[in-house]
Amino acid sequence: MLKSKYILFVVFLLSAVAVSAQKAERNYIRKGNRLFNDSIFVDAEVNYRKALEVNPKSTVSMYNLGNTLSQQQKFQDAMEQYVSASNIEKDKMKLAHIYHNMGVLLQAGKDYAKAVDAYKMSLRNNPTDDETRYNLALAQKMLKDQQQNQQNQDQNQDQNKDQQKQNQKQDQNKDKQNDQKQDEKKDQQQPPKSEKQNNQMSKENAEQLLNSVMQDEKDVQDKVKKQQKVMQGGRLEKDW
Asked: What is the pTM of this model?
């Protein structure tokens, strides 16, 4: 009998604690909502965080905290709250709201591919949401434009690279031609031996060379004649 009373007391105590916790959570959420509506986002954030301290699995607190952080331009922190809520929440309508807001943040960050996926997830949970359907169409268009712009940029970069290669090749050919022209010019300006000079030297020295040869030949003939005269006219002289 005493044991049964003890068990009932424990159950009653736990229930009272749970009820008190739920009441505290609701109070923090309601206060946070009032502050949010008054655009006092910092204080609203404080209350939603207090609600999460009471109930760390409160998807309502996560979702509202994400909205408050988004209003403060803390987009990454807001996205973390939405993702955490989407991993826990089972209600389809709430999931639709969560994914819709995720899509809005992703679209604002120009991550159109992920925004499209988020809007699609929202519509899977609530196919009748026209605002989400409109956002999806807009994100798909912006994604297509983004991909087209990227493709054009890639093509322009490839064309610029090809043009640079072609210009480099042309410059190399020009340099090579200039080098050849300079070499030819040097050959014309500074020939190893000028044919004109060679010809001129031959003309100037031809007569001298011929006269020299003729003189040498005459000297030789004179010597021969003298020797012949000596040999004919007297005795032979012996060379030592």
From this structure: 0.61
